[in-house]
Amino acid sequence: MSKKAGVASLLKLIVPAGKATPSPPVGPALGQRGVKSMDFCKQFNDRTKDLVVGTPTPVAITINPDRTFTFMVKTPPTSWLLKQAAGVAKGAAQPGSQTVGTVSLKHIYAVAQIKQKDPVMSHIELRKICKSVVSTAASAGIRVVH
Amino acid sequence: MRYTQSASRACCLPRRGFTASSITQTAEAQTKEGDATPQPAVEKKTPASSVVQGTILKGLNIYRDGSDPVAQRDEDYPDWLWKLLDKVPKEKKSEHERQRMDRSDSIKKSNFMRGRK
Predict the structure, then answer these.
(1) What is the extent of the structural domain holding A102?
(2) Which UniProt keywords apply (chain B) (predicted)?
(3) Contact A107 B57 (CB under 8 A)
(4) Which residues pair with B63 in a beta bridge?
(5) Which percentage of chain A shows pLDDT scores above 90?
(6) Which of A81, B15, B41, B115 reaches 20 to 30 Å from A63, CA-CA?
(7) Model-level pTM?
(8) In which band, very low, low, confident or very high, does the pLDDT at A5 lie, cut at 50, 70 and 90?
(9) Cα A131 to Cα A88: distance, rounded to the nearest angstrom
């Protein structure tokens, strides 16, 4: 990233909750930017201790020029939540023509409720979050039924 | 009347309520009156959800101390939820609007071609 003094860089990763370790993917990504990965791992695991271990958790790390960092933990990816709800491991290879699973509108509602807790989404109407989840399901090849 | 019709550039101007739009509005009002059916007093009943109340929605618990959410009664969910899967009908554009769009698209295209060199 930028080497100019005074510019903070942003790093986005998806890390399993409670399982951050210095090794890849976390280690090299942070090490390149001069951050001690062990520090990050300890703080991250502490902040995600309420989550089920291993839940993929997107995190946005802001690294300051003086090598300090702050990070924001977000809710698991919508597509992952939908695959869990549908009971499939992988999404469709060809989402338009293939369907790998089904979920109902009540599942969509439950997923949207989880996503609403995300700091990014907290000000968005629940109805609009649901619409977005329905679109994500379509792109994963998961059919939504009534 | 002709003043308003010649304003192909009017599509770029902020909408004024007294010219071409008012013409289309009266046309729309007429068709609406013709199609008007009495609105049902009671809301149309939506078909029952495939997920019965009490079904455990497996896989959606991400908290260590939590448990999978349970489906509630259909009535406890907001009304808009049942409309999420409805297809939104595409609005048909009037002939006038379509001509306007075609004209402005061809102008933009020719400007691009000229500006390319």
Answers:
(1) 78-145
(2) Mitochondrion, Ribonucleoprotein, Ribosomal protein, Transit peptide
(3) yes
(4) A51
(5) 40
(6) A81
(7) 0.68
(8) low
(9) 21
Q: Chain B partners of A76 at a C-beta cutoff of 8 Å? A: 62
**Out of A50, A105, A111, whose CB is closest to B63?**
A50
Identify whether residues A53 and A33 lie together within a single domain.
yes
CA gap B107, B35 in Å, rounded: 38
Task: Tell me, yes or no, whether A56 and A84 share the same domain.
Answer: no
CB contact under 8 A, A106 and B58: no
Cα separation, A59 vs A41, in Å, equals 12
Report how far residue A86's alpha carbon sits from residue A79's, in angstroms, rounded to the nearest whole number: 10
> Which of B47, B49, B60 is opposite residue A85, by nearest beta carbon?
B60
Question: In sequence order, which residues have a C-beta less than 8 Å from that of residue B2 and are 6 or more positions away?
Answer: none
End residue of a domain, out of A45, A73, A101:
A73
Q: What is the 3-state secondary structure (H, E, C) of chain A?
A: CCCCCCCCEEEEEEEECCCCCCCCCHHHHHHHCCCCHHHHHHHHHHHCCCECCCCEEEEEEEECCCCCEEEEECCCCHHHHHHHHHCCCCCCCCCCCCCCEEEEHHHHHHHHHHHHCCCCCCCCCHHHHHHHHHHHHHHHCEEEEC
Report the distance separating Cα A28 and Cα B114, nearest Å: 50
Other beta carbons within 10 Å of A39:
13
A51, A106: one domain: no
List the end-to-end C-alpha distance of chain A, in Å, as a whole number. Answer: 47
